[in-house]
Amino acid sequence: MATGHEHWHERGEIYALGALDGQELKEFEAHLASGCSICEAYLHETRETLAVLHRSLRPEAPPLAIKARIMDQIAPQTMTHPRQERAGWLNWNWWGLGIGVATAAVALVLSSNLTRTQSDLEKAKQQLAAAQVESAQKDELLQLLSSPNIRLIELKGLEAAPAASAKLIWNPVARSGILLTNGLPKTPTDKAYELWGIAGTEPIPAGVFRVNDQGQARFRMPVLGQGKTFDKFAVTLEPAAGVEQPSGPMVLLGTL
Amino acid sequence: MPADQTIAVNLIQKVANQDRDAFGQLYDRFSSLVFALAMRMLRVRSDAEDLLQEVFVQIWRQAQSYSVQRGSPEAWIINIARSRAIDKIRSIRRMEKSFVLTDDPARAESGENVESSAAESEARMAMNSALANLPETQRKVLELAYFDGLTQTEIANRLAEPLGTIKTRMRSGIQRLRDMLGTQAV
User: Fold this and answer.
1) Is residue A129 within 8 angstroms of chain B, CB to CB?
2) A137 interface with B at CB cutoff 8 Å
3) For chain B, which terminus, N or C, has the lower number of CB atoms within 10 Å?
4) Which pLDDT score, from 0 to 100, does residue A197 have?
């Protein structure tokens, strides 16, 4: 531990709990605002330690409708371009207009090159990020496969999608898993596939997903609540936001 | 960095670029955790649902402010959720002019309450070895601060203990968690 900071660390720990108050709170926040990297790091480390508190809670899947509500609320932002100033045009003389056009042409070429370079850079960044995600996903899959608790469940295509198939790597201890599908019909824009864990005759929603053009998906299901023992897993076609009870055709079914 | 964390970091980076698919995946990963925390802290399902929505909208808007230097994605997200929940708790408490929110029978017995009641939560906590190994006095002050949003002064008042004692218990509790989890102070 760094010396000379014990006094601040005492406050930092209570701050990380959210319990610092009064003058001590003001002083500590001012200290943080002064840019103390030691206290900043200590605060983050303390928060990571305190994570044991919320991890002790049983994860609880929220109602599916909330996700749809949030997705609606974060409507995609469209790129807007600044409005062109028109006043300058009205004041130009004709010769000025000629120079302006030439300058604009040069600027356009430069801007086009710059845009292309930026675009290439952006594309490279995206490719790198995609490669990192793919690599991390493979690591995660390997990690899951190497767990002693996992079960592999084959889901077979039913009448609505006879060519489809899927494998669910299910960890009954972690109560989560990864679904890999193949050959599912492409989903209409207002629909999505929904995975269900079935305990006896009771279906429990286990998340919605979409497939690519080959009907493939790699879907990491959310952690399901405790208290149910699943003996089957199924996939149905449902409205895009998902539903609490299955309403569409069942396309895949597998038994533990 | 664990694979899980790498995936979450990459998802947040994509969310910063307004990638809705990545946002959906991030939601799938963390919504159960945030919702459980919101239920434990607010104890009313509709409040917990509102909080969940607010937290993820904030994540969407502020994803570009995240960096790994700010901690793991989980700690960052949970910190957002706790801050908002504490604001709500304290706002309700101000309205009620009381520091006894969790003892308020109207909320505690609310009809839309709460599969995970405080008693159930405590039972689950008791099963958690790290928490179970804390002395009761330390565990209590950590829970009152972390889940009930009480400040050190409010905890001292509630437990009728000197403020210095409460601070010592909090720090000792955190230090003991560090020792048990093998995390190293900076």
Assistant:
1) yes
2) yes
3) N
4) 92
Q: Is the ipTM of this complex over 0.85?
A: no
Q: Which residues of B80-96 are buried (b: 16+ CB within 10 A; e: fewer)?
A: bbbebbbebbbebbeee
Q: pLDDT tens-digit profile of A187-201?
A: 887 888 999 999 988
Q: 């309205």: which residue's tokens?
A: B95
A14, A49, A57 ranked by CB distance to B37: nearest: A57
Domain boundaries of chain A, sorted by first residue:
6-54, 98-146, 151-255
Residue B3 CB coordination number (10 Å): 17
d(CA B133, CA B131): 5
Residue A21, Cβ density class (10 Å: 0-12 exposed, 13-18 middle, ≥19 buried): middle
List, for residues A38-87, the tens digit of each pLDDT value: 898 899 899 988 988 888 888 888 998 999 999 988 875 444 443 333 34
Contact B186 A129 (CB under 8 A): no
Q: Which residues belong to CATH 1.10.1740.10 in chain B? A: 1-111
Considering the domain delimited by A151-255, tell me its CATH architecture. Answer: Sandwich (2.60)
Residue spans in chain B of domains classed CATH 1.10.10.10: 117-186
Question: Do B171 and A10 form a contact (C-beta atoms < 8 A)?
Answer: yes
Q: Do A70 and B57 touch (CB under 8 A)?
A: yes
DSSP β-bridge partners for residue B178:
none
Tokens standing for residue A63: 């109602």
Over the stretch B140-184, which tens digit does the pLDDT of each residue have? 999 999 999 999 999 999 999 999 999 999 999 999 988 887 654
- Residue A161: what are its φ and ψ, rounded to 5°? -150, 70
Q: Return the exposure string of A193-213: e unless at least 16 CB atoms fall within 10 Å of the residue's CB, then b.
A: bbbbbbeeeebbbbbbbbbee
CATH 1.10.1740.10 fits B1-111, yes or no: yes
Helix or strand holding residue A208 (H, E): strand A202-209
Nearest by CB to A133, which of B10, B75, B115?
Answer: B10
CATH topology (fold) of B117-186: Arc Repressor Mutant, subunit A (1.10.10)
Distance (Å, whole) CA A17 – CA A172: 33
Ramachandran angles phi, psi of A199, nearest 5°: -105, 105
Query: For residue B169, what pLDDT is reported?
Result: 96
Token digits of residue A59: 């994860």
Where in B32-182 does DSSP place strands (E)?
Answer: none
